[in-house]
Amino acid sequence: MGKKAEASSRKRTGSLWEVLLVSFRLGLTSFGGPIAHLGYFHNEYVHKRKWLDERSYADLVALCQFLPGPASSQVGIGIGVMRAGLAGGILAFLGFTLPSVIALILFALLVQGFDVSSAAWLHGLKIVAVAVVAHAVLGMAGKLTPDANRRTIALLAVVVTLMWQTVITQVVIIAAAALAGYMLYREQKNPAVSHIAVPISKRFAIGCLTLFFGLLILLPLLREWTSVHAIAVFDSFYRAGSLVFGGGHVVLPLLEREVVPVGWLTEEAFLAGYGATQAVPGPLFTFAAYIGAVMNGWGGAFIATTAIFLPAFLLILGTLPFWSQLRSNPTIQGALFGVNAAVVGILVAALYHPIWTSSILAPADFALAAVLFGMLVFWKLPPWIVVLGGAIGGTLIGLM
Q1: Is the predicted pLDDT of residue 85 greater than 70, yes or no?
Q2: Helix, strand, coil shares of the chain as percentages rounded to 5?
Q3: Domain extents for the chain?
Q4: From residue 324, how far is each of 199, 202, 393 by CA, in Å?
Q5: pLDDT recorded at residue 108
Q6: Could you tell me if 290 and 296 are in contact, meaning their C-beta atoms sit under 8 angstroms apart?
Q7: What is the mean pLDDT of the chain?
């Protein structure tokens, strides 16, 4: 019995170490924003390592797209939890997030005011995102839109996403797609979904959801009652992480309204950090680390980063145990058929805007994107080589 326990412990330790290493490498190489991150995750976790199948990944993405907060970070946390439990989720988050957090803190402390927005190598990294997202869209579309109904849902999602660009668009599209999927596929005999082990109890999940809503209500009251600066900062960033749909690009202007008018940051310092955040890999929510560091060094960065990501943790941990059971329900499966098709449409729309429109500005840009796509798809080179190739290619284009 002791030997079995020891073997189990070694297996779990190995899994934890693997989760940390893989997520850390993704944290170093995942440029391009939240949609591009889903492409990197898809390539690493589904195609390469097969930690979960295509359907399970799509269902997890659908759940995280529906929740407020940083969708790509929540997907990473969810995969870590399913792979190695709660500790796996924490390590997956740390590995993916720490590289950009440290880079932005150092930027805040050492090179404030440095303009990176026009750097040629950064433009090359944007072109990498085109290749990565195009690869992910092709892979997911083939699996998730196999019939005319689902292709129609995906097409409508593309049109609505591009023509109606508001903070609630994504939520409305997913809700409508769920209804359409339910109506179209509720009586269809659906294939059994693969079982996903979620080593979190429902009691713990309910506790996480209770804490999420409790903090959302209590923090503003504590801010008023105490007038403590650290509580005010925690409240602002926690609220930003709790109420934002649509990922990191949406939270940036929201944070500006929270920190610039009250004098926590100057407009110039905010814009400098905005440019730096676009230049680093990993989740855009790590912009909070920069703001916190400008305000109060490493301590301020820790408070701001913890506050903005805590809602994402509580929400994904609070929903995963129920989601794993619900996705096996035939009625829910029908709705998920529609939702997954809509997610493909949202990815296609994001591939065009903002990724394509901000990256492919000349024939040379398209040529580099084609080469990077070939490196990723045809030659199956590691993502870090594709990222390095994009940076070098962008620099060469800048010299032309």
Answers
A1: yes
A2: 80, 0, 20
A3: 10-400
A4: 11, 11, 43
A5: 87
A6: no
A7: 85
